[in-house]
Every structure is written in structure tokens, then in C-alpha cells.
Design a protein that fits this description.
This is prephenate dehydrogenase. The protein has about 300 residues and is of the alpha/beta class. It has twelve helices and nine strands. The structure holds 1,4-dihydronicotinamide adenine dinucleotide and 3-(4-hydroxy-phenyl)pyruvic acid.
């Protein structure tokens, strides 16, 4: 049981962590810190946090667990604000969607206290944001990737892992670099594609007509284009190198398919579609079975 949990950024991810940890009986007192007082007050009304802190020093005083759950470019400034006040017993973790940049920012901000920072990323979420979107069950059966650092104490890593397990999550471990390469491919690229497609259609003179006839396939493909622009701007730039590799590979595939369309190459097109269909079916069956087993 944590005596005092502090959440920087009480939105979908930080708010859901607070709700899940409290439901599991693992947090005696939860304090929120943020950019918008109005949003923090709303989080308190919703029972997500017990108190609002207006400065970093008082927020982290006596804290045993601190979670940074703000857009990833905020990680450095937030950690710099708490570094002078960090007590030795406090464990600091984060929920950012990228890890190499977060670790670099943490090293800069925390110096020797980097031992106290355990980077992590819950692989659960949705396109809605803010405290109203928080759900106690968001992490049930979902993965949390911990990208522990060589400096970390194994016992501290286990405390963060146990907190996420209490929220219903299953722990995986990757290096920050492995993490960023994986998520560039299966999360960051799909978000870029969805934002790009919707923006492209919205900019056409007859956009209203096009949207009027868009069906459920369009809805499924573009759901994530309703996600937070600030959060995704930060992720896109933070994971620039890995993301450019994936964008280039995708452009090649699009050019390949374009050439097949122009040439009327039905068998070539069908071969790609059949391979994708098979991979998608296998993936869905495996992920659903794993989540059923975990929850
Ligand atoms: N949305 C998703 O599905 C997932 C998001 N993440 C990561 O979790 C983090 C939070 O994302 P969400 O909860 O979705 O966003 P959100 O927009 O719901 O919440 C972020 C909160 O951070 C606050 N904030 C912004 N700057 C701040 C600062 N300097 N200090 C303190 N608070 C600040 C905002 O006011 C907002 O309340 C991001 O790093 C994101 O990459 C990770 C997994 C899934
Ligand atoms: O909306 C969705 O389905 C997502 O893909 C949620 C998501 C967003 C960012 C992450 O780092 C992890 C999960």
C-alpha cells in the first residue's frame, strides 16, 4: 500500500492509474498536479484524486510513488521541477508512449537520482482524453512495458511492476530502443496514417459529401485520428528516427501497390491482401486469447 501517490497529468492515463490503484486498495492518498486547475478540480470531483497540489515541492513531499502521465515533451520540465525536492524513498515512473527521449530527459533532469526513475508504458488507451475519460478497468488484461535502466534497483522495478499488476496489467520488459522501434511500427505509424488520411479528405472542396458517405470501415481506420494532437505531436517528434524508418517502408509498400493498380495486376494485389488478411486474423485471435487469459 502506497501512503502518498502523486500524479503529474491527471488525464486518461494518470486518472485511470489512480482509479485502478485505489480500487485495488493500494493507495492511501492520491495527489494530482497539472497545468489546468479546472481539470484537476474536475478530477477531484470525480473521485480520481484526493487533493490538488499547486507546486511540485509540496506535491512530492512524503510521496512514495510519483507517476508522470503528461505529453512526453513535458517529462523533462516536470522531472526538473521535482528533482530538488525528491526524497530518497520516492520511486518515480512514467507512462509515456516513447522511451529513449523520456530516459534522456530523465537523465538530464535527475542526474544521480536517475536510480529512482523506472520508465514504463501502459499499452492501453483510447482516443478520448482528460479526467472524464479515465476508467478504473482500462489496464485489465493489458500489457505494461517496463524499460528498466542499468542504474535501477531490482526491488524498485518490482514495486512499479506490482503497482501495474494491481491495476490488472501484465508486465513485459524491453530496452528503450527496442520499445521505440516496436511502437513506431504498430502504434505511431498507424496514428500518422489516420491523421494524414482524415486531414487529406477534410481539405478537399467536397469534404462534406465525402464524410457523409463514409462508412464503418472509415470509422475503424480513423478512430485514432480523434486522439489528442498535442500528445501525438510530441510522440511523432520524440520517436523521429524509428518513425521515419517506418514511414519510408510504408511509402515503398504504397508505391508497390500503386504500380500494381496502374498495371491492373489483380493477382499481385490479391496476394498482398490475402497475406494481410491472414496476419490480421492471426493477430486478433492471439491478442484476444492472451487478454482473456490475463483478465
Ligand atoms: N492516450 C493513450 O491512449 C495513451 C497515452 N499514453 C501516454 O500517457 C501520457 C498521458 O496521455 P493521456 O492521459 O492520454 O493524455 P491526457 O490529455 O488525457 O492527459 C494529460 C494530462 O497532462 C496534463 N499536463 C500537460 N502538461 C503538464 C505539465 N507540464 N505538468 C503536469 N500536467 C501536465 C494535461 O493538462 C492533461 O490533464 C502521454 O505521455 C501519452 O503518450 C500512454 C498510453 C496510452
Ligand atoms: O486509441 C488507441 O486504440 C490506442 O492506440 C491507444 C494508445 C495510444 C498510445 C499508446 O502509447 C498506447 C495506446
Amino acid at each position: 500500500m502506497f501512503k502518498k501517490v502523486v500524479i503529474f497529468g491527471v488525464g486518461l492515463i494518470g486518472g485511470s492509474f489512480a482509479l485502478a490503484l485505489r480500487r485495488a486498495g493500494q493507495a492511501a492518498h492520491i495527489v494530482g498536479v497539472g497545468r489546468s486547475l479546472q481539470s484537476l478540480e474536475r478530477a477531484r470531483e470525480l473521485g480520481i484524486i484526493d487533493a490538488v497540489a499547486t507546486d511540485a515541492a509540496s506535491a512530492v513531499q512524503g510521496a512514495d510513488l510519483i507517476l508522470v502521465a503528461a505529453p512526453v515533451a513535458q517529462t523533462g520540465p516536470i522531472l526538473a521541477s521535482i528533482a530538488p525536492h525528491l526524497e530518497p524513498q520516492a520511486i518515480v515512473t512514467d507512462a509515456g508512449s516513447t522511451k529513449s527521449d523520456v530516459v534522456a530527459a530523465a537523465r538530464m533532469a535527475l542526474g544521480d537520482r536517475i536510480v529512482q526513475f523506472i520508465p514504463a508504458h501502459p499499452i492501453a488507451g483510447r482516443e478520448k482524453h482528460g479526467p472524464e475519460a479515465a476508467l478504473a478497468e482500462l489496464y485489465e488484461g493489458k500489457k505494461v512495458v517496463i524499460t528498466a535502466l542499468p542504474e535501477n534497483d531490482a526491488a524498485d522495478v518490482e514495486i512499479v511492476a506490482a503497482a501495474w499488476r494491481a491495476c490488472g496489467a501484465v508486465i513485459h520488459r524491453l530496452s528503450p530502443q527496442e520499445h521505440d522501434a516496436v511502437f513506431a511500427s504498430v502504434s505511431h505509424l498507424p496514428h500518422v496514417l489516420a491523421f494524414a488520411l482524415v486531414d487529406d479528405i477534410a481539405a478537399k472542396p467536397h469534404a462534406a459529401t465525402l464524410f457523409q458517405y463514409a462508412a464503418s470501415g472509415f470509422r475503424d481506420f480513423t478512430r485514432i485520428a480523434a486522439s489528442s494532437p498535442e500528445m501525438w505531436r510530441d510522440i511523432t517528434l520524440a520517436n523521429r528516427d524509428a518513425l521515419l524508418t517506418e514511414v519510408d517502408a510504408y511509402l515503398l509498400q504504397l508505391q508497390n501497390i500503386r504500380a500494381m493498380i496502374a498495371a491492373g495486376d489483380g493477382p499481385g494485389i490479391e496476394k498482398i491482401y490475402a497475406s494481410a488478411q491472414h496476419a490480421r486474423q492471426q493477430w486478433a485471435a492471439a491478442i484476444e486469447a492472451a487478454e482473456r487469459k490475463a483478465s
